[in-house]
Amino acid sequence: MTTAAPISRGEFGAVAVPRILRLLADRSLPATFFIPGHTIETYPDVCRMIVDAGCEVGLHGYAHEMNALQSASDERTAMARSIELVQGLTGTYPVGYRAPAGDQTNQTIELLLENGIVYDSSLMGHDFRPYRVRVGDEFPTEAPARWGSESELIELPWSWTNDDYPYLEFVAFRKGGIMPGLVRPEDMFSNWLGDVQWMVRELEGGVATFVLHPQVIGRGHRLLAFEDFLEKVVDLGVQFDKMADIASAVATGAEFAIEKLGGQ
Length: 264
Fold this sequence. Notes:
The protein has 264 residues and is an alpha/beta fold. Helix content is 45%, strand content 12%. It has a four-stranded mixed beta sheet with strand order 3-4-6-5, sandwiched between helices. The protein has a two-stranded parallel sheet with strand order 1-2. Strands 7-8 form a two-stranded antiparallel sheet. The N and C termini lie far apart (50 Å). The model has no long low-confidence stretch (mean pLDDT 95).
């Protein structure tokens, strides 16, 4: 969708990033941005602001391409190009990846391992516990799933339920169908706060991942609701971390999301 209106939707992300960075800086909160390579090339100054603010930058495809629709060669090329662009922006080799639209495949996993990526955040196999990504899963149509073996790749799970895009964005697709979005951001953040409250009550060391898109969350009334959400989460006494730091703790053997006995 490269006509003027959808392009302008993306342009607003460049307006929103400085607002988001100020909001985070005012509270000394770390964050991880997953940035497509094409965005790094198109908005170098805005992306430099993200790095200068001390945020982590992870991989997010080159042009937000859907992995399941790519050939092995095209996906390999896009990943290599994205790695080069992130490394050029940050000065360090990227360690994290989020698939565009969470569109992960076995081929993607193998490429991440081949390229030495430490963690992925595209799968939904748990809500609050990091785990190791399997390689070689098979899903025959007339037999049970055949699970592959665990790999070194660490999964920091996410979920569409904790992503602002389906809640807030209105999209009319050219081939039919509408993503209605446009709910009150307070309703979305109420759901998210409930997840954190349950995690704090029931688990030791749970990890909650929330996904926000600058072009979505960066509108004024949504930023006000975001600020209120952050203040309530801070009051719960949880710790905020870059995703690379969480992955590093997993790699060194830290345990996460340990069930509390009796919810105490």
